[in-house]
Amino acid sequence: MRSSHDVTSVPAPSLDNAFAPAYLARLREQDDVLTAAEAELAGPWKIEPVPGRPGAVAILRLWEDLAIGDAPVAVLWHLETARLLSVLLPVLDREPLFYLEEGAASEGYPLVAVFGEQGPQVAGWLDRHEPRWAEGLHLLEAIVRSPLALATLLEAAGPGAEEQVGRIRARRQRA
Questions:
Q1: Which range, 10-19, 84-93, 107-116, 123-132, is most confident?
Q2: Alpha-carbon distance 92 to 94, whole Å?
Q3: Of 53, 67, 106, 142, whose Cβ has the fewest other Cβ atoms within 10 Å?
Q4: pLDDT of the residue at 72
Q5: CB 156 within 8 A of CB 84
Q6: Residue 169 to residues 27, 56, 164: CA-CA distances in angstroms?
Q7: How far is Cα 129 from Cα 124, in angstroms, rounded to an integer?
Q8: Nearest to 97 by CA among 126, 134, 127
Q9: Helices in the chain by DSSP H: which ranges?
Q10: Which pLDDT belongs to residue 40?
Q11: Is the entire prediction scored with pTM above 0.90?
């Protein structure tokens, strides 16, 4: 057993993956599970400057690093856009939290919300079949469930908008 006093002069090689190549090859032969797409974009994400490209920022998973050759999912010229994308990525391939049924009922088109173990429930009705409304609700619902996403959105909006949000929240608390 090695102790902290045992020091070798040869540094341990950096690992790309802790699993053996043969094991990884077997994994790649298997079918992915239903949640694989969500896991692929779940993050958590970080934003770091791109060396040699002044002003450019890269979006990487928290455990990735440009310095060791990890490829970013995006390189953007504006930090606020990178912040928005870092919020959006975990939400996009997530199981939809809302969807719109095809057929109209007497009240309109049923808007269905998925509430975890409770399963799908009609959340209301829309006067037209507009799936983008359900997609938008999905995006917003997923974002408001994440304090980190909300904080990142405020950062992306800038200090002026953040100050105004503070004023709005303070006045609403008084009402």
A1: 123-132
A2: 6
A3: 106
A4: 96
A5: yes
A6: 49, 34, 9
A7: 13
A8: 134
A9: 21-29, 36-41, 79-92, 131-144, 147-157, 159-174
A10: 76
A11: no
